[in-house]
Amino acid sequence: MNLNLLNNVDMKNVKLKGGFLGRLQELIIDETIPHQYGILNDMVEGVPKSNAIANFRIAAGEQKDKFYGMIFQDSDVAKWLEAASYSLIVKPDPELERILDELVELIGKAQEPDGYLNTYFSVSQPDKKWTNLRDWHELYCAGHMMEAAVAYYKATGKTGLIDIMSKFTDHMLTVLGPEPDKKRGYPGHPEIELALVKMYKATGDEKYLKLSKFFIDERGTEPNFFETEAEARNEKGLNIMQELGYKYWQAHLPVREQTTAEGHSVRAMYLYAGAADIARETQERELFEVLRKLWDNVTGKRMYITAAVGSQRYGESFSLDYDLPNDTIYGETCASIGLVFFAQRMLQMDPDRKYSDVIEKAIYNGILSGISLDGKKFFYVNPLEVAPEVCEHRVDHRHVKTRRPGWYDCACCPANVSRLYTSIGDYMYSVSREGEIYVHIFANNSANISLNDVNVELDVKTCYPWDGNISIDVNPEHAGEFTIAVRVPSWCLEPCISINGQPVNISENIHKGYVKMKRTWKPGDKIDICYPMEARLVRANPRIRENAGKAAIQRGPVVYCVEEADNFQGLQNIVIPRNVKFDEKYDKDILNGVVVVEFKAYCQEDWDSEECYSFDQNRYREVKVRAIPYYAWCNRTPGEMMVWLREEACIEI
Amino acid sequence: MNLNLLNNVDMKNVKLKGGFLGRLQELIIDETIPHQYGILNDMVEGVPKSNAIANFRIAAGEQKDKFYGMIFQDSDVAKWLEAASYSLIVKPDPELERILDELVELIGKAQEPDGYLNTYFSVSQPDKKWTNLRDWHELYCAGHMMEAAVAYYKATGKTGLIDIMSKFTDHMLTVLGPEPDKKRGYPGHPEIELALVKMYKATGDEKYLKLSKFFIDERGTEPNFFETEAEARNEKGLNIMQELGYKYWQAHLPVREQTTAEGHSVRAMYLYAGAADIARETQERELFEVLRKLWDNVTGKRMYITAAVGSQRYGESFSLDYDLPNDTIYGETCASIGLVFFAQRMLQMDPDRKYSDVIEKAIYNGILSGISLDGKKFFYVNPLEVAPEVCEHRVDHRHVKTRRPGWYDCACCPANVSRLYTSIGDYMYSVSREGEIYVHIFANNSANISLNDVNVELDVKTCYPWDGNISIDVNPEHAGEFTIAVRVPSWCLEPCISINGQPVNISENIHKGYVKMKRTWKPGDKIDICYPMEARLVRANPRIRENAGKAAIQRGPVVYCVEEADNFQGLQNIVIPRNVKFDEKYDKDILNGVVVVEFKAYCQEDWDSEECYSFDQNRYREVKVRAIPYYAWCNRTPGEMMVWLREEACIEI
C-alpha cells in the first residue's frame, strides 16, 4: 500500500489572521526572534553568555578569540536562522532578510575549504573531527544548518546556504559510508536524518536521501559503531549514560527492531521523524509499521496529558510504560516539538486524527508551556506538579525550575519553540493524492490550496482554542467536485457540522477521525463546525500510579492547572467533588486572555498540630478553586502548580 | 536543672525470655552473627567480598596481600565484635569468646607501635594518615572499635581492646587538639563522639570525654576545618556533595546553632547522639535544648511513620520539613538505628514517652524491615512504596531494592542491626536518681534492677507486639517504697492499669507519658496492663504531599503494609472505604507468626483500553485486602508494596 497519501500544504499558502495562534506567531516574530538574536550576539543582560554568532566570526578569521559555548553551539544559530526565515515568509522584512543574508555569508566564510562546517572543531580541536560521532554533535549541527538552509531558500529564493550544506554533504560522503575506508557511523543525536530529507525534497539531489537512509539503516547494528569508535579513542566500555546503555541513543537495536520508545526523548523523536521520512521517500512499509508501533507506544503508554514526553531526568529520557510522575517528569520542550515532527510525518502517510490530535495537544499545552507569555523566557523542563521549596531542597527535583529562565547554557528549546510556531502553517492542511483537502488544525487563517483541477481558498474564522465554533468559507476558483476532510478532535463528544446550513451526517462520513465531505463545492459555500468546548474531567489509566484517584481538567484541547497564585498553598489538599460544576468564562485581562475555569471544591483542612501523624479523621472545608490553562502557568508569582487533582471517588458497587 | 535524671538499666540485668524480641534476639545470635562472621572471613558464597578480617592479618604482617574493601572496612569488624560481645552477655559461649579473644589479639597486632589503628592506611597509604578527616573515616572506624572495646569488656571482663583503644586515643591526642601544632579537626562521619563517652564511662578516664567534647565544640566553626584541610590537599572548593555543601556533614554551622536536621542522616543521628552524651556528661543545658529542638524537627517534621529518616538518595540525606516521599525515600536502616541511639540519650535526660515511643516505633518497623525473617539478608534502603519495574527502569529509584541482598560493598547496616537487637536490653528500663524504675519497652523478660535501698526483680509477660496485655510481677527483695513508671504508648487510646486487681487512675498519675505508681511494693505484687491493640487508620499531616488523601494502618506499635504477594498488582488502586472494618487474626504460620489484618475495600478497575487518558468515570469493584506488618515485607515473591493507601474521603461540611 502506498505511503504517499498526503502532502502537507506549505506554510507559504497559509496566512494566520490574528486569533490565538496568529497573535502567538506575531509575538514570536516581533519579540522572541529579535530577542533571541540579541542573545546570540551577547547583547542581552542577565542571561548566560552565548557567543554563538561570534564563534562563526572566529572560525571565519574575522575575530581573534576562543570558541565559547557548548560543543553544539552552532545549532543555536541554525535554528534561529530557520525561525527567522519562516518569519520572513509570514511577515516580509527587508532588514531581517539582510541580516540573514549576512549571516549566511558569514557561515560560508566559516566553512573550511574542504566543505567541513563546525566552528567548535574548526577553532578548538581541528584534529578531532569525526572522532566521536556519539557525543560531539557534528552531524546534529549540520542537520540544523540544513533545515535552516531549506527554510532560507523557501523564504528568499536564495540558495546560498543550501550550496554551503551541499558542499558539506560532499565532504561528509568522503568520511562516512559503507565502504571499507569510511566510517559506518551515524549521529549520537539524530537530527540530520530528517534534515537530509528536507534537502532532498528542496533540491531533488538523491545524495541526501541516500545518506539519510544510510544513517537510519546503520543505527544500532552490530558491531555497534559507538563501541568501535570508543575503542579507537582508547575508552574502556561505555563512559557515560551507563544506567541506560545504548538505549540512550536509540542504538541498542537496529531501528527496524525497536518496539518501545527508549532513551533520550529528543533524540528518539527526531530519529523517529527522520525514519518516517525515509519510510515515505523509499516507500518502505516495514519501516512504517515499526514506526506506527513506536507511535502507539509513545502516545499510548509514555506520554503525558500535556503531550510532554520524557519521564525521568537521568538521560532526559523515557523510563517505562505508564510511568508518568508529575513532579519528577522531564518533559523537555524540545521533545514535545520532536513529537510534533514525528506526528506530522506519520499523518501524511496515514491520515488519522490520532496524529493530529497529538499535534493539537502539543501546540496548546506541552510546547506552549515552554515559552512565557511575553515571549522572552523559556522552560526546558515542563512539570505537571511543582512545589518550589521541594525543587530547591530535593536534588532529584532540581531539574524543575520555578521561573522560566531567559536563556540556558544548553539553549536548544527557545529557538525550537520559535521555529515551530512560525512554521505552524505547515501543520494545518494537507492534500491527498486523490485531491482531498485535509483540515488538521483550526485557527483564524486563510489558505490557498492547489488541487489538480482547481485552486481553493479557505477562509477560517474561529476563536479556537476558547471556542469550538469554526466557520470555513470555501471558495474554489470555480465549482468542482472534491472532498474536504475535517478533523473531529477526539475530545469532542458532540460535534456538529453543516454545509450551507445543511447538517452533515458525521457518523456516516467519518473515517479515522476525519469527516469527509465530498461534493461539488461552489464559491461561497460555507462549512459551519461546532465542536462544543466545556471543562471536563479526564482520568488516567489506573496503571499510572501517580494519578490514582486524580483527575485533570480539560476544555477543548486545552489542559488546565491550578496555581498557588490563584488559590493557596497546599494544592494537594484540593478534592474535586463528585458532581463538580464548572464555571467557565473568558477573561481578556488575565494571562493575555484565557478562559478561566472555576469550581467549588473541598479542601482538606490544615492541622492545628505540626505533627506528622494522627489517628484523627481529616476535616474538609469548601473552597472556590480557579484553574487556568496549563500553558500559561508560571507567568506570575512563583508558587505551587498542579495539573492532576484529587477527585472524590464516585464508588457505586 | 540537672540533666542526670535517668540511668538506663544495663542489658546484663535484663533477660529476654522468648516472645517476639526474645526470638528475634535468638535468631540474630544463632543465625545472623555466625553468618556475618562467615562473610567477614569471605567464607560465604554469593555475596560481595569482604576481606574485613583479612585486612587485619595483612596489617599485622601475618598475610601478604593488598587491602581490599571500603576505606572504612575495619568498622565492619568492630561492629561485629560489638554485636558478638553483646551476644555473649545474652548467651555465654566459650567458643565464641575464644574467637573474640583471638580477634582482639589480631587487632592488637595490627596496631602500629605509635598506637595508630586502621588497616587501610597502615597497609595502603601510610603517608596519608590524618590528611582527610572529612572523607577518610579514620575516626569513624576508631569510634566503632571503641564501642566494641567497651562491649567486649562488659561481656568478658577483659580490657584488651580497651587498652588498644586507649593507646590509639593517646596517639590521636598528639595529632588533634586546639593547640597550634595540632589539627582542630573533627570527623566527617560522626561516631567517635558517642564512642569516646562510652570509653569514658567504662574507664573513668577524662581524656576520652575531653576529646569527644572537643569534636562537638569544633564542628562547623569558622574557619571551616574541612575547607582548610581540603586546601592543604590542593583541592579547589568542595569536590563532593556540592548540592548539599557542608550540611551533608552537619558542619554548616556550629552544633549549638543548628536548628534543623540536615545532611546525611546517619551522620546526623550519630552526631546528635554524641552531642547528647556531651550535654549530659558536662551538664550543659544549652546543648540539651539545641538537641531537643533538633529532636522535635527530626521526629515532628522529617520522620516517616515507620521511624525511617532520610528522604532523598542524594547524600543519603534529609531534604526539608514534611517532604516524605514513599517511593524515593532513603530511609537507611542505620539511620533509624542512629535515631534510637539519639532517642535513648534524650530519654535519660528528659523522661518523656516521645523518645521511647520512637524507640518502639523503630524497633518494630523501620529497623526491623532492614533484616529478612531468616536473619541473613538485609536492606539498606527501606521504602514505603515499591513497584519493582519502576525500581528497575527509573534511575531515580535505583537505590530501592526489591530483594534484600546478602551483603553490600558498604556493609554498615547488617552489623548495626545485630548490635542493636542483641543489646536491646539496654533500652528497656531506667532508674532515676530518686530511685524510680522506668519501664520503656515491653517484652517477655525478667530484669534485676538495683535501687538504692533494695533490688527489685521484674518479670514481664506479654505477647507484644501482637497483644497489649502485659503483666509485671514485681518482686523487691523486701517491701519498700518506690515508684514504678510505666510508659503508655501514644498510640494507645484506652489504657488500663491495675495493681493487684486495683485500677490505677492513669490520668492523675501520668507524667510525660509515664504512669508513675508510687507505693510500698511487696514481693508478689502484680501490675496488669492492658493496652488494647486494634488496627486503626493513621493520617498524615496535609503538608505531606504524597500522603494527601491516604491512610496507613497501624496496630499497636506495628505499622502495616499491603504486598502484591497477598493481593494483586496495582496497589495504588485500592481505596479504603469510609467505614472500614478490620479483621485481625494472629497466624503463626505466616511470616514467622504475625497478626494479619484483612478488610473489604474498593479497588479501581483496570481499563479495557490500554490508553492513558479517558473522560470516563472510573469504576470500582469490591476486594478483600490483606495487610501484613511492614517489617515482614519482601520475604516472599518480590512484588509491589505500599504502606500509605488511598482512603475514601469522608467529607462532611
Give your account of this protein's structure.
Two copies of one chain form a homodimer. With 653 residues, the first copy, chain A, is an alpha+beta fold. Chain A has three domains: 6-427, Glycosyltransferase; 435-530, Maltose phosphorylase, domain 3 (Sandwich); 535-647, no CATH class. In chain A, 34% of the residues lie in helices and 19% in strands. Chain A contains 17 helices and 24 strands. In chain A, helix 2 (52-59) packs across helix 4 and helix 3 (74-90) runs parallel beside helix 16 (412-422). At the A-B interface, helix 15, strand 15, strand 21 and strand 22 of A face helix 15, strand 15, strand 21 and strand 22 of B.
List keywords for this structure.
17 helices, Maltose phosphorylase, domain 3, 6-stranded mixed β-sheet, 653 residues, 7-stranded antiparallel β-sheet, alpha+beta, globular, homodimer, 24 strands, Glycosyltransferase
Give a summary of the structure in a few sentences.
Two copies of one chain form a homodimer. The first copy, chain A, is of the alpha+beta class and about 650 residues long.
Topology:
Two copies of one chain form a homodimer.
Chain A: E1 6-8, E2 14-16, H1 19-40, H2 52-59, H3 74-90, H4 94-110, H5 119-123, H6 138-156, H7 160-175, H8 192-203, H9 206-218, H10 225-232, H11 265-281, H12 285-301, H13 333-349, H14 353-366, E3 385-386, H15 388-393, H16 412-422, E4 429-432, E5 437-439, E6 445-450, E7 455-462, E8 469-476, E9 480-487, E10 496-499, E11 502-503, H17 506-509, E12 510-511, E13 514-521, E14 525-530, E15 535-540, E16 550-555, E17 558-563, E18 574-576, E19 582-587, E20 594-604, E21 613-614, E22 620-629, E23 641-642, E24 645-647
Parallel strand pairs in A: 5-9, 18-24
Antiparallel strand pairs in A: 1-4, 2-6, 3-23, 4-5, 6-7, 7-8, 8-14, 9-13, 10-11, 10-14, 12-13, 15-16, 16-17, 16-24, 17-22, 17-23, 18-20, 19-20, 20-22
Helix pairs in contact in A: 1-3, 1-16, 2-4, 3-4, 3-6, 3-16, 6-7, 6-8, 8-9, 8-11, 9-11, 11-12, 11-13, 12-13, 13-14
